[in-house]
């Protein structure tokens, strides 16, 4: 069993060594510490055994009799001492300390040396010593090794349970997170609809089971859920359909979340294309929901050429947030241009979203040119949420080639984690991916310019179409090496941070859904084919002057 061990610091109020004028031939003070040959001032980590040899050097020989009661190794979380074996070298000036049992992985330990430690001349140690270190990852496999294909099947099937087993019992919609009770999410439910299509296609459930669930969901959306000019709020009560405010002023329509929902519903409409009565009913209900969204009204009812994210029945346009690129909302503009009755003009796309070209980047990061967006690309959900349904292969317009954009974004994120300028624990070729997720301090949009050491499995796994080799390495690491920590009943937990030894216990719909869908797009392009086959989407893309092999 192998570990990485991270030497953090040794702590003392003042230097453990006495001032030069105080040094006498028999003065007893601490000189240095090494862990398996690594000196404490070489901060960082190195691969060592699970039973590290810790060497403490002193100025004069120690009294062997005083060592056992004066040198203690404890877990930070508890006070019980770890049994130790002591050896002595260099004429007893150096103590070699070895734990009698393997240390636990990813655990904080403290080595304390008290002033009760005596020299051979019975002089007390001049200052106590406290050394903190953290054990790293046990690199043995945690589960039986699966083939790549079988592992992808397992990840899709188990992650799907979040949307199937944990769906709200009344509405069938996706709960915001595993602790949200009656709160369901409109955008996350759109991702969940797409997950159901994958599950039917992969035969995790039957076609009839999937159809029955979608009929339940769409009936609730049409007949119970509160809408505002056809648009849905970010959060709803899954039992009553009433709006649950996302924030004080965000208590009405969320157009971006609505676009994620519609993306999923259009995919379902294209998938369930049979002539049996239930499939016809599903398509009609989806068409009713789709045609009800007044996309162009979100230009402040035609007063501006900007498309706005929110509208509140109480605060109206007070949030005043135009939807501008580059971010996760390209699908919002494509669907807004695709509407049969309430379409926006290309002028709105160019002036509001593209800002007449100012969303372009063109710089190189880690030797990769990035066509659009912020420096280093931003969080990875930018290249994922809109492209659950939009096929980026060969998709281009006046501003970018979107396969180039998304691949570059993913590779920059990978290269940043590989370079690891923040020196965070665990980052590397097998452990990468920064995006919005929970973290030790709450929730944040993690990216190269906002990095605190938190890795979100959805980031690398939802990048599978763009970085298949790198994403598979990450999946192998997450499952094979960290699976006992982060693999649960609904797939991988939302995030983890190996620097702070923190593992989320949460699952979020907007993070679980893209894992299933983007792995499927990598494998079969199912959702890309469905959404791009919708006549309205073709119409909208053409209207915005996109080019694609599917148009």
UniProtKB/TrEMBL annotation:
Residue ranges constituting the SbsA Ig-like domain according to the UniProt record: 46-135
PROSITE patterns in the cross-refs: PROKAR_LIPOPROTEIN (PS51257)
Gene3D superfamilies: 1.50.10.140
Keyword terms: Signal
Domain annotation Glycoamylase-like: ranges: 322-534
InterPro entries for the chain: Glycoamylase-like_cons_dom (IPR019282), SbsA_Ig (IPR032812)
Domain of life the protein comes from: Bacteria
Name of a matching Pfam family: Big_5
Protein name (Swiss-Prot/TrEMBL): Glucoamylase family protein
Organism: Larkinella bovis
